[in-house]
Automatic annotation (TrEMBL):
GO terms for molecular function: methyltransferase activity. This is Methyltransferase domain-containing protein. Transmembrane segments: none annotated. It comes from Actinomadura litoris. SUPFAM superfamilies: S-adenosyl-L-methionine-dependent methyltransferases (SSF53335). GO terms for biological process: methylation. The keyword Methyltransferase applies. InterPro entries: Methyltransf_25, SAM-dependent_MTases_sf. Keywords: Methyltransferase, Transferase.
Length: 236
């Protein structure tokens, strides 16, 4: 499915009926051949937006998956770059692709770092956390950053209510809620639980100073608003 190298429909069905961790362990060998992997255009736009803020010392990709975020971290960080995820399968693929990085298996809701990084990023993973779990993640990132450190991630504008995209995402989230109501273990993957204002509020509550900047390389919508913004959370 998606491409000759991607997972079959049966493989995706098995994954979707597993836990999040087990599902990504199963998907890991073919994950980079699916649309779930963050596109290079988003990674590059993030890199371009962060580059004027200077070089960083050490960088961390939170929920790193197979390591796509290294495309952003490696050009921006002078010293060590690292990724953290709880899927052994995804980390194995990341280690193969980027042997020079450090890879840590951990639950991102309880990050095991203290003032160790200057830059943290995450790409396309926040939908795997329930809104009630975000404060623990953001508190852990805040703890992991040195004073003055930056946590950055792109966030897309919601599709217009009259668009196919809006109803597709609504239908997907509804299907996932029904699945999780009747099947265990749950597979947490929602597209409509991370609105910009909620992100800003949760980050501010964790102690960050929050701003945004448009990712101009990804274009603008018909109303002139940016398709994507980079959310910038600075630890004072």
């Amino acid at each position: 499915m998606f491409s000759p190298q991607g997972p079959s429909l049966r493989e995706l069905a098995v994954q979707s009926l597993s836990s999040v961790e087990r599902g990504y362990d199963l998907l890991a060998p073919k994950f980079d051949h699916t649309p779930f992997r963050t596109p290079d255009a988003i990674l590059d736009a993030t890199t371009d937006a962060l580059r004027p803020r200077g070089l960083f010392e050490r960088g961390l990709d939170v929920c790193c998956g197979t390591g796509a975020g290294m495309r952003t971290l490696e050009p921006l960080c002078k010293e060590q770059v690292a990724g953290v995820d709880f899927s052994t399968g995804m980390l194995a693929r990341a280690r193969e692709a980027h042997p020079g990085a450090e890879w840590i298996r951990a639950d991102v809701r309880a990050l095991p770092f203290s003032e160790a990084f200057d830059l943290a990023v995450t790409f396309g993973a926040l939908g795997h956390l329930l809104p009630a779990e975000r404060p623990a993640l953001f508190a852990g990132v805040h703890r992991a950053l040195r004073p003055g450190g930056l946590f950055a991630f792109p966030i897309g504008a919601p599709p217009p209510i009259a668009s196919v995209g809006y109803w597709t995402l609504l239908g997907f989230d509804a299907a996932m809620r029904i699945r999780n109501a009747i099947w265990r273990p749950p597979f947490v993957m929602y597209y409509r639980t991370c609105p910009l204002q909620a992100m800003r509020d949760d980050l501010a509550a964790a102690g960050f100073t929050v701003t945004t900047t448009p990712l101009e390389g990804l274009g603008r919508r018909e109303d002139g608003s940016p398709r994507y913004r980079l959310l910038l959370a600075r630890k004072p």
